[in-house]
Amino acid sequence: MKIAMMARNPDLYSHRRLKEAAEERGHELDIINTLRCYMNIASRRPEIFYNGEKLIGYDAVIPRIGASVTFYGLAVLRQFEMMGVYPLNESVAIGRSRDKLRSMQLLARDGIGLPVTTFAHDPKMTEEVLKTAGGAPVVIKLLEGTQGIGVVLADTERSAKSVIEAFRGANVNILVQEFIKESGGTDIRALVVGGKVIAAMKRTGAEGEFRSNLHRGGSAQAIKISPEERSTAVRAAKSMGLNVCGVDMLRANHGPVVMEVNSSPGLEGVEKATGIDVAGKIIEFIMKHAEAGKTKTRGKG
């Protein structure tokens, strides 16, 4: 099998591991810098060119699209889909997960546990927004933020109002969420592959840090999750339409709540914490399911 991986940094742990796992199983995996691709859109035969050569003969594509290049990355992935190449995650599903507001709306529609989340356009609605979220402390998130960047914990009503009004005054879209104090600065990341949780870890924030992202100095350890947490992770992945994702959850008093669904989860933290060959399981999923023209959306939508 010939697999393309859309990724800008071939040296990242996750990308090296996926390449190793594919080659160990007798497949060829080429790492293609997403931003160096260009496309023939108007042709009846969709084409992608890379470093001056036409990309042909690929059976599957693994999109590892950085948040900063989502727009162009999804355009390239749609082109692969229209060429009949099987995508590990479809462009429409990745687009859903990257839009924090849309993803929350879809999860809520499907009855998946969420923290109380509010969204408003008018900065004059600040008091109503805070009241709906249950009052301070609240977590304020930029819609475009990733890896804990653009996430602020406002401890008091006064600081929350200041932050919300500052963001909205700068015409930046934000979500305001209740702060799940009982989670104690820890969260759970469940790795879902093909509708099953294959690995889970508990992430704990650095001293004095409410965000538990490993990029921000957090630590990780393997964890056994409850049937309810497992079900929540699987349903969240299904709600987004993702075959592979990391589902980030907090343990609230009323059960698990989903914070985010990540369509390009890092593998280093979870593999080292659990000892599970996540990269191998992803490649095996592709081996089992890759079929020309199998994309449900076929680049539409």
Please outline the major beta sheet: 5 strands, antiparallel
Q: Please tell me the overall pLDDT.
A: 89
Distance N to C terminus: 28 Å
How many whole angstroms does the radius of gyration measure? 20 Å
> Count the helices. How many?
9
* CATH fold call of the largest domain: Rossmann fold
Give the CATH class of the largest domain: Alpha Beta
> Taking strands numbered 1, 2, ... along the chain, how are they ordered across the largest sheet?
14-13-12-15-16
The stretches of 5 or more residues where confidence is low (pLDDT under 50) are none
Helix content: 25-40%
Please tell me the total number of domains: 3
- Count of β-strands: 16
Shape: globular
Q: Estimate the strand proportion.
A: 25-35%
What is the ordering of alpha helices and beta strands?
EHEEEEEHEHHEHEEHEEEEHEEHH
CATH-defined architecture of the largest domain: 3-Layer(aba) Sandwich
Protein name: Probable alpha-L-glutamate ligase
Enzyme class: ligase
Cofactor: Mg(2+); Mn(2+)
Binding site for Mg(2+) 1: 248, 260
